[in-house]
């Protein structure tokens, strides 16, 4: 006999809500960057954060390194704006990840930029809060 565990409707609603929370967390991280609010951005970054950035040849590790990098970028930039396309969120217990395409624009050191890429971000839920624990970003084009 084959048995199949079908998630209850209530469980499906909870998973859908958690997926929206992950997406909203990432959008708020971007808004914090756009508003120059490094403390709000930092509140979403896990202590064990790692990343492969668009130009990184090695893994960058630690929340402090991430916050310093973002702060330096904010301090030298204006009109930063990021958009998300085609997000897909998957959750396994207290671990979730989101894949998406992004485009951003702004000016850094007086030079305008507009880029497009694809990304995966991994989030860990501790307590009632999703925190970004890893990011992997692939640059697709520079305008």
Helix and strand topology:
Layout: H1 9-35, H2 38-42, E1 45-52, E2 60-61, H3 63-75, E3 77-92, E4 95-108, E5 111-126, E6 129-142
Parallel strand pairs: 1-6
Antiparallel strand pairs: 1-2, 3-4, 4-5, 5-6
Short description:
This protein is an alpha+beta fold. The chain is built from 3 helices and 6 strands; from the N terminus they run ααββαββββ. It has a 6-stranded mixed beta sheet.
Describe the structure.
- It is a single chain.
- The chain has three helices and six strands, in the order ααββαββββ.
- The chain is of the alpha+beta class and 143 residues long.
- The mean pLDDT is 92.
Quaternary structure type: single chain
Major β-sheet profile:
6 strands, mixed
Mean pLDDT level: 92
Largest beta sheet: strand ordering:
2-1-6-5-4-3
Distance between the termini: 58 Å
Please indicate the percent range of residues in DSSP E strands (runs of 2 or more).
Answer: over 45%
Helix content: 25-40%
Label this structure with key terms.
alpha+beta, six-stranded mixed sheet, single chain, 143 residues
